[in-house]
Amino acid sequence: MSQNVVALSEVLGALSYALDITEGQPVGHSLRCCWIGMHIGKRIGLDDEALSDLYYTLLLKDIGCSSNAARICQLYLADDLSFKHAYKAVDTKLPEILRFLLANTAKKSGFVERLQTLVNIARNGGEISRELIETRCQRGAEIARSMRFSQAVADGILDLDEHWDGTGQPLNRAGDDISLFARIALLAQVSDVFFMRTGVAGVMREVTERSGRWFDPTLVDVLVEFADDAQFWSTLRANDLDQRVARLEPLAMVRRVDDDYLDDIAVGFAQVVDAKSPFTAGHSDRVALFADLIAEELGYAPERRRWLKRAALLHDIGKLGVSNTILDKNGKPDEEEWAEIRRHPELGRQILSKISAFSDMASIAGDHHERLDGQGYPNGLAEAAIDLDTRIITAADIFDALTADRPYRKAMPVHTAFDIMQRDLDKAIDPKVFAALQRGFVHLEHIADPTDEKAA
């Protein structure tokens, strides 16, 4: 089988946009952090191998970010996206923390519920914060390792929220015990947040004030050396920032990815997507399984089946831009919430279209909620405009939605799901695709119990 070979930096640089969205940050946050952090790394004399690991630590620092989104909504009764956006600029000084909590906790709740939530946070705030950060960092490190990155990269992600003076989390590491990559990444992260809000002066004011508390003073001194470098800072707003960041990867260490590695990357980002909500755990994997089952029944060649599975794993990547207050709502979305839900296919299309290795599956992400009767979203496409690959993903997606738990109902048995899907043939579901799904399940049942006469 032919192998697609592309630069890893291109793939992850583009996928980092999805992480920016999940963290509620202006698009390009990860790339800007990479620009800042790599210049610090070069200035302190890191060798090419270390710079290569630093490069991917900076791009992937937020890869565990979706794993605490649902918990944030639950504990703080807050929109996770706006909560995370605001929290990125908060220092750990008590008055600032209190102002943040008062401004961002249970804003849409009644007085009693808001008061109860604030009292709970006041009593258990340290434990809650540790739990959220530990979940995020540990999950991020695990995903990085599953995507073939070194332990040094995983440690950089794991230690991202540790502070130089030992007051960070989750392990209260201090000084040189904190991964150097994490120290650089945290400094770059805060620098970008304040650059986008208050410009270079704001960056310098914030990092020097936190030097010795949050940040390694030596690294702060290096960053301060760039204070008057207008070109350094203007690049952060350049239209070709992605290309400039790609050129920062050490030439001798440029990493290439083949089809096997692309599969691992797709699996890794599917984990990021599915971690966003307890109700979507394993969803992308199952959609990939059901889509492959259908494709096999329809006679797809092995190479095309592999491509389709990859598309299925990434079909919902745009959901990273939808708040968990909507995704996990126990009830029907209101008009404003529904509008947010309808945005996620187009977000997915935009993210995947930036990557040459995934661009040919961007239409699947963008169109998987379209319907044959033209009543789908986001564009109300007509039947002729929906290709067979997308119809397969749509059927697999619907089937999993019916047979998995949702906030508003329990999972349905397979036969009930098939009955419901039958009523949507030629409306939302292609009859040939549905028939292939049914045949595939007959074969699965036969494999599970070859003595079952009904499956024979």
CATH topology descriptor of the largest domain: Hypothetical protein af1432
Helix content: 55-70%
Largest sheet: 2 strands, antiparallel
Task: Write down the secondary-structure element order.
Answer: EHHHHHHHHHHHHEHHHHHHHHH
How many structural domains? Answer: 2
End-to-end Cα distance, whole Å, is: 34 Å
The count of helical stretches stands at 21
Q: What is the level 1 CATH name of the largest domain?
A: Mainly Alpha
State the total count of DSSP E strands: 2
Structural class: mainly alpha
CATH superfamily of the largest domain: Hypothetical protein af1432
Could you report the average pLDDT, rounded to the nearest whole number? 92
CATH architecture of the largest domain: Orthogonal Bundle
> Which strand-content bin applies to the residues?
under 5%
Which descriptor suits the 3D outline?
Answer: globular
Low-confidence stretches: none
If you compute it from the alpha carbons, what radius of gyration comes out, rounded to the nearest whole angstrom?
23 Å
Could you describe the 3D structure shown?
Helix 2 (29-43) packs antiparallel against helix 3 and helix 13 (259-274) runs parallel beside helix 15 (302-314). It is built from 21 helices and two strands. It has helices spanning 8-22, 29-43, 48-60, 69-76, 80-87, 94-104, 111-146, 151-158, 180-210, 217-224, 230-234, 241-246, 259-274, 283-297, 302-314, 324-327, 335-353, 362-367, 388-403, 414-422, 431-448, and strands at 6-7, 256-257. 61% of the residues lie in helices and 1% in strands. It has 456 residues and is mostly helical. The protein has two domains: 6-256, Hypothetical protein af1432; 259-455, Orthogonal Bundle (Hypothetical protein af1432), CATH 1.10.3210.10.
